[in-house]
Design brief:
By secondary structure, the protein is of the alpha/beta class. It is built from ten helices and seven strands. It has a seven-stranded mixed β-sheet with strand order 3-2-1-4-6-5-7, with helices on both faces. Helix 9 runs antiparallel to helix 10.
């Protein structure tokens, strides 16, 4: 029997991107059984945009932080499987079908899955996405010894979430998806990375939120260090390389946008 799937989308001030995310869910070859948008104190029309889709359940989380919004959405979800994406995620039409087929296999019930991304707001989105995927998935696996569920494109059995619910670190100075993967692994879970399960995403910290990039990279280092991974120092030169490289990407994209116009988002 095919397992039910809930998709959870934490969102804070995402009115401009959320509609595209939800429209991609409308286009799925197999519909999800539940979609929950967790409005985390938005001051714009995020909740109204979400409520405009009849299949969406809008809930509110007053405590600020993506970890709190994620936890609330996961706790309220009713599906056998929980899918987790971001408000800027554009799912390919077969995403739900891929996830359901994966979990139809009884051997996969103790596993999380996560996929790759392509940055749809960059002219160089395919190339930068490939570099990003290598760092996020392959390099993290080198440092940690295993894959982890990436927050923009992941799914896990609800039972696995309930098993670690009281163990995950509820901290806003950690990468919540990285921390979740660590606790799932400690509880005996495994993870698979499916590169062909590719979603669209926005490279905000390159083009529109540059001031947050280094802080985000420092958070990556801190999460690794606090969880005492021996190879966590590898994240430092990687962070510096990403930070410096982002300036080159920004410059190229800026010139390209001036000459040919920005990519539609």
């Amino acid at each position: 029997m095919t397992k039910s799937l809930s998709i959870v989308i934490p969102a804070c001030n995402e009115e401009h991107l959320l509609k595209g995310c939800l429209e991609a869910i409308v286009r799925q070859t197999v519909a999800p059984d539940e979609v929950i948008v967790v409005d985390n104190n938005s001051t714009d029309r995020t909740a109204a945009v979400a409520a405009g889709f009849s299949f969406v359940t809008v809930v509110h989380e007053q405590q600020q932080g993506i970890v709190y919004a994620r936890n609330r959405g996961f706790d309220l979800s009713r599906g056998d499987i929980i899918g987790r994406i971001d408000a800027d995620t554009i799912l390919p039409p077969d995403w739900v079908e891929t996830v359901k087929v994966f979990y139809d296999n009884p051997a996969h019930i103790g596993q999380t899955i996560n996929g790759s991304c392509r940055f749809y707001n960059l002219h160089s989105g395919a190339v930068i996405g490939a570099i990003y995927n290598f760092v996020v998935h392959r390099m993290n696996r080198l440092i940690m010894g295993y894959y982890f569920p990436w927050g923009s494109n992941m799914a896990l059995p609800a039972d696995m979430w309930r098993n670690v619910r009281e163990k995950v670190c509820v901290r806003t100075d950690y990468h919540e998806d990285l921390d979740l993967g660590i606790h799932l692994h400690e509880a005996g879970g495994t993870a698979q990375y499916l590169p062909k399960m590719r979603v669209g995403a926005v490279a905000r910290r390159i083009m529109t939120e540059r001031g947050h990039l280094w802080g985000n990279l420092r958070m990556w280092q801190y999460t690794m260090r606090q969880h005492r991974f021996v190879l966590w120092p590898l994240s430092v030169p990687l962070s510096v390389g990403i930070w410096l490289g982002s300036y080159g990407v920004f410059a190229i994209e800026y010139v390209w946008n001036k000459l040919f116009g920005p990519r539609p988002v």
